[in-house]
């Protein structure tokens, strides 16, 4: 057998590493008579891909050229992948030469690790640097960061900046812009941009269908899906998550079940967990709790906590204690330290005035050291994000906000608003309950927006949890008495309030 040259050895190491055969790759690397930069990059990248950063660091420490930009970029990718963002930043800062891949690894790494602000700061540093120019991946990552932060202002700035570059004509960038506008609550600009994309791939179609679904425009979402089919664009699993979500938010139960049951037969897409979860939610919203339980029990996977969480939330709305207990017990068994099951069960009891049971659940939470995720809302005004929590005592302009809320409360009641005291989970007097409702984070953010934004402009508020029913009703009245459009995004969807109505038709 002829002797292998260095290139052959490198190909073998790289191939084994890509196949996940790290042990064999390391043995092959050790047997190499001669190694070059490609060899070292191959073995370090293989360790990074396998998540073995300890070995990657060992090899990196032995390489003869530790300034190699490809090698260092691989290490940055590995550190980001393992959540060691500070170590990745140290590596990046010590580099004398960087390429676009290096910058992209940092930007995407921060954003993937939930540090979108740091990722966007890195993006700004990149575009003001003379080292490199951004590419489509750079802009896609930055726009994702804007989506994560719900920062329409910054997203618009990036859009305007990109128009000066040929990159603005790139389909990946155009699709990312559509997605950003959808997720930041500006469906008008999203739709306009989507129509301007000359050649749309399935990702582009999915972004717009998902956007319509999130904003409650279920008819437009289904219509767009049908157009996509006529243009012979092959749907994928994400397409059907969007379609099922549209049916879900629009109360199109029969149509949603049809799409779910015909996915594999008519479109060749096998239902995954997300599709089952959408279908369970669809049935729960329609009040078909028994059918939802049947779907949960027939799933070809281990039941996911989200399935029982959805069922439990519906039990509160439909006041069904039998299925509430069933869902809660399963949810606690799957995630005993998670707050969701306890909170939802307590809410169900509270909605029925069973305060002894509420106290029992709270005691159980304390015994199991369960920590509830706090709800909060935020609003962006002139590029500055203002965050509020229920009963907020921190914001510098609370006195002004409370004054506005008290004024609105009086006018809302004159217009027919009745506080829904069932959304107060404490056993206190009615007057105290009303005061607590008016201090919910959504209302604080809306009031601040009314004070700080120009008359007639749209107010955009975001919340990390599902919007409370009383806040939803109040937002309708506020839109009426103030003559303002209010866009509120919660953990599930967008609500567009205008002239006393909501785009969801109170089906949410």
Automatic annotation (TrEMBL):
SUPFAM superfamilies: TPR-like (SSF48452)
Start-end of each PPR repeat: 5-39, 99-134, 170-200, 201-235
Domain spans labelled DYW: 416-508
Signal sequence bounds: none
Keyword terms, alphabetized: Repeat
GO BP term, example: RNA modification
Record-level Gene Ontology MF annotations: RNA binding; zinc ion binding
Annotated InterPro entries: DYW_dom (IPR032867), E_motif (IPR046848), PPR_At4g14850-like_plant (IPR046960), PPR_rpt (IPR002885), TPR-like_helical_dom_sf (IPR011990)
Listed PANTHER family: (WILD MALAYSIAN BANANA) HYPOTHETICAL PROTEIN, PENTATRICOPEPTIDE REPEAT-CONTAINING PROTEIN
Protein name as annotated: Pentatricopeptide repeat-containing protein, mitochondrial
Organism from which the protein derives: Iris pallida (Sweet iris)
């Amino acid at each position: 057998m002829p002797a292998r040259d260095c290139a052959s050895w490198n190909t073998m190491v790289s191939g084994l590493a890509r196949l996940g055969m790290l042990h064999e790759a390391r043995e092959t690397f050790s047997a190499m008579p001669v190694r070059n930069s490609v060899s070292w990059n191959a073995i370090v990248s293989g360790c990074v891909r396998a998540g073995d950063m300890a070995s990657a660091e060992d090899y990196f420490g032995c390489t003869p050229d530790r300034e190699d930009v490809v090698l260092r970029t691989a290490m940055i990718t590995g550190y980001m992948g393992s959540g060691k963002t500070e170590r990745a930043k140290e590596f990046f800062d010590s580099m004398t030469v960087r390429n676009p891949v290096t910058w992209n690894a940092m930007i995407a790494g921060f954003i993937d690790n939930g540090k979108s602000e740091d990722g966007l700061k890195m993006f700004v540093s990149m575009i003001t640097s003379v080292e490199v120019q951004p590419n489509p991946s750079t802009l896609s990552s930055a726009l994702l960061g804007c989506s994560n932060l719900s920062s329409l202002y910054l997203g618009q700035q990036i859009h305007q900046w990109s128009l000066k570059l040929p990159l603005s004509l790139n389909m990946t960038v155009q699709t990312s812009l559509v997605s950003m506008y959808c997720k930041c609550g500006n469906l008008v600009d999203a739709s306009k941009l989507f129509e301007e994309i000359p050649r749309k791939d399935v990702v582009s179609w999915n972004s717009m269908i998902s956007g319509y679904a999130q904003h409650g425009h279920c008819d437009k979402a289904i219509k767009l899906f049908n157009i996509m089919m006529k243009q012979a664009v092959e749907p994928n699993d994400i397409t059907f998550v969007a379609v099922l979500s549209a049916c879900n938010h629009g109360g199109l139960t029969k149509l949603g079940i049809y799409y779910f049951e015909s996915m594999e037969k008519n479109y060749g897409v096998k239902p995954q967990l997300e599709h089952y979860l959408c279908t369970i939610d669809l049935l729960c919203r329609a009040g078909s709790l028994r059918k939802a339980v049947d779907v949960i029990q027939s799933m070809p996977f281990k039941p996911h906590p989200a399935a029982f969480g959805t069922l439990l939330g519906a039990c509160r709305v439909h006041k069904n204690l039998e299925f509430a207990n069933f869902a809660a017990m399963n949810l606690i068994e799957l995630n005993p330290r998670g707050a969701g099951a306890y909170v939802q069960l307590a809410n169900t009891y509270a909605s029925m005035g069973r305060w002894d049971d509420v106290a029992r659940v709270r005691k159980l939470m304390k015994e199991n050291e369960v920590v509830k995720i706090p709800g909060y809302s935020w609003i962006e005004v002139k590029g500055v994000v203002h965050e509020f929590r229920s009963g907020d005592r921190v914001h510098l302009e609370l006195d002004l906000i409370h004054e506005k809320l008290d004024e609105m409360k009086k006018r809302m009641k004159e217009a027919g608003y009745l506080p829904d005291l069932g959304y107060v989970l404490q056993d206190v007097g009615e007057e105290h309950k009303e005061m607590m409702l008016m201090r919910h984070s959504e209302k604080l953010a809306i009031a601040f927006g009314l004070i700080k934004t120009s008359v007639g402009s749209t107010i955009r508020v975001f919340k990390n949890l599902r919007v409370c029913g009383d806040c939803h009703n109040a937002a309708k009245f506020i839109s009426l008495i103030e003559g303002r459009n209010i866009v509120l995004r919660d953990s599930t969807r967008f609500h567009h309030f205008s002239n006393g109505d909501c785009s969801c038709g109170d089906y949410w």
